[in-house]
Design a protein that fits this description.
- There is one protein chain.
- The protein has a 6-stranded mixed beta sheet with strand order 11-6-1-2-3-19, with helices on both faces.
- Helix 6 runs antiparallel to helix 8 (288-312).
- Among the domains are: 85-159, Dna Ligase, domain 1; 196-350, Nucleotidyltransferase, domain 5, CATH 3.30.420.
- The chain is globular.
- It has 12 helices and 19 strands.
- By secondary structure, the chain is of the alpha/beta class.
- Bound molecules: adenosine-5'-triphosphate and magnesium ion (MG).
- Adenosine-5'-triphosphate is lined by residues 13-16, 45, 80, 210-213, 233-235, 238, 253, 256-257, 327-329, 331-332, 366-367.
- Belongs to the FtsA/MreB family.
- Residues 7-194 form the SHS2 domain.
Length: 411
Amino acid sequence: MPKDNLIVGLDVGTTKVSICVGNFQEGIANIIAACHKPNSGMRKGTVADIEETVSAISAALDDAERTTGTSLSRAVVGISGSHIVSTDSKGVIAVSRADGEITQSDVERVLEAARAIALPTNQEIIHVIPKNYIIDGQGGIKEPVGMSGIRLEVEAHVIGGTTSAIKNLSKCVFQAGLEIADIVFSPLATSKALLSKKQKEIGVLLVDFGAGTTSLAAYEEGEVIGAAVLPVGCMHITNDIAIGLRTSLETAEKIKIKEATAAVNKVGEKEVVNLNDYDPADDQKIPKKYLAQIVEARLDEIFNMIREKLRLWNKEGMLPAGIVFTGGGSKLNGLVDAAKEKLRLPAQVGSPFLEISGMVDKIDNPIYATSVGLLLWAMQQKTTSFTNTAGLKNIGNILDRTKNFFKQFLP
Ligand SMILES: Nc1ncnc2c1ncn2[C@@H]1O[C@H](COP(=O)(O)OP(=O)(O)OP(=O)(O)O)[C@@H](O)[C@H]1O
Ligand SMILES: [Mg+2]
């Protein structure tokens, strides 16, 4: 098995660390290892306990190294959490060449200009994603290099995060023995695995329904038009069930997975959940409808927050390719139908659509959606979106290293 050019996609989630290892053969991602381990060091997608997080990353890495039979040294790392901010920005420059031909260096300068937005001092930019270039007032240009003009503008989408959250995650990755090839806002990577070009073109919303967070990335005309991380996830449903049924969190989690549904109307009045099946010390019998109502109340809150974001992006009820769910919460019974009804959009659970070889069946699981996406990110990366590492001590110049790292995969 080829051991060189191995890429590690590392997703550090609230409840689990997921790692995918692969390489690219003739433009196809070949997955040779996929592992995950529980993580208890995060709260709502952000590092809360460095030691616990390092130990979860190390455990998953050990597994991946055993499977691949090699030592793994660098990873493309996903970042999420409610500290993430996203906003539109613009950049303008004068084209440098006397003959007016636009070069790659002009494009890099105009993207740099788009970075100059006022972020609070404790935040920094993670991505500058160009949506549209404008040359001498004429817009709708996707690839300006080689065209001629005097003035080059870019309309971009900027994603940033809190410096301390980025630093803490980086620290955990370093302490687990990995270098960072790039830091990527997780839903952008997940979208690479789950969304087709066509869906992104006509308009789609990725919803990663995780444990502590629900992350969103909306696309239209092939580009990101909005991104957000909501500080509520599927774990909150477990908490609500524990409170509502007066059970332990462990019992509530089992009941959520086995018995809960978001489809209140489909539950018969006489259906009951026998808590004794989950906890020998508990002999309550609970109407299944009551359980469904608990789920529905929390989902309604999350759907309202999603609707608010869509409204902010002027896309409420307007993304024809609808919602693609992933994350552990996407397995919740009745979720898709509830989303269709409440958000009035088509909805489905996502599954990797790209041609992938190796452990294809294993990675068709929301546990691996982000880590596979991070691998694909490495494959499809262009220099137009990159990590700003200015505030990250000890990391060195990731930008340069990242560019060199990706060069080996680019055609
Ligand atoms: N079959 C199922 N039905 C309902 N919920 C499920 C099911 N399987 C997993 N979950 C829930 O999915 C959540 C875990 O999802 P996931 O692994 O995507 O989270 P994470 O990546 O650790 O968290 P985050 O992305 O918020 O940082 C847990 O709350 C778990 O209870
Ligand atoms: Mg997650």
